[in-house]
Design a protein that fits this description.
172 residues; SRPBCC domain-containing protein; 8-stranded antiparallel β-sheet; 27% helix; Alpha-D-Glucose-1,6-Bisphosphate, Chain A, domain 4; alpha+beta; 38% strand; START-like_dom_sf; single chain
C-alpha cells in the first residue's frame, strides 16, 4: 500500500496524494465524517485526537485538539464548504485556538493560515481510492513557497495518517 503523490501539480502549488484502502466507500466516508471514527485515526501518528465539535454541513466546523504523549496541545479546524456523500468533502483546514479562531501554526516557518482541501472517494471492487488535493488560500508568496517546500513532509505525514485510517478500517 503506497501513496501516490502527483508531482505535476507542484508547479501549481497544489499538493495531491492518493491512497487505496481496502474498504467500501460508504465506510471510508463515515470514517471521514463521524467523530467516533475521526478521533481514532485523524492526525499524526502518536498523537491523541479529541473532537471538540463536528457540524457536518457547508458552513459547519470540525474543531479538534491534538495532544502529544507529553501533554502538549495543538488545535485545528476544518471549515466545511461542500459535502457530497459519500464521494467528496471540501474544507479549509487551519490551525486554531481553543475557541475555533484561526491562528498561526506552532512553528516558525510562515505556513499559510488556510489550506483548501478536496477529498474525493472512488470505489472499485470494494476498495476505495482516496485523493486529497490541497492548495493555500489567500497566501503570500513566502507562505506559498513554504507550503510547496513542505510537500515531502506532508507526504510523510499523510502517509502515517493513511496508515492509521487503514488500520482503523480493518478493525471495523
Amino acid at each position: 500500500m503506497t501513496d501516490n503523490v502527483d508531482a505535476t501539480k507542484a508547479a501549481n502549488n497544489e499538493f495531491v496524494i492518493t491512497r487505496e484502502l481496502d474498504a467500501p466507500r460508504e465506510l471510508v466516508f463515515k470514517a471521514w465524517t463521524e467523530p467516533e471514527h475521526l478521533q481514532r485515526w485523524w492526525g499524526p501518528k502518536g498523537l491523541t485526537i479529541t473532537v471538540v465539535k463536528l457540524d457536518l454541513r457547508p458552513g459547519g466546523l470540525f474543531h479538534y485538539i491534538m495532544r502529544t504523549p507529553e501533554g502538549d496541545e495543538t488545535w485545528g479546524r476544518f471549515a466545511y464548504r461542500e459535502i457530497t456523500a459519500p464521494e467528496r468533502l471540501v474544507y479549509v483546514n487551519s490551525f486554531s485556538d481553543p475557541e475555533g479562531g484561526i491562528v498561526r501554526p506552532p512553528f516558525d516557518d510562515p505556513w499559510p493560515l488556510e489550506i483548501l482541501n478536496t477529498v474525493t472517494l472512488e470505489e472499485q471492487d470494494g476498495k476505495t481510492t482516496v485523493t486529497i488535493s490541497a492548495i493555500p488560500v489567500n497566501a503570500s508568496e513566502e507562505e506559498t513557497r513554504v507550503f510547496r517546500a513542505g510537500f515531502e513532509s506532508m507526504e510523510q505525514g499523510y502517509g502515517g495518517t493513511f496508515d492509521q485510517l487503514a488500520e482503523h478500517l480493518a478493525a471495523l
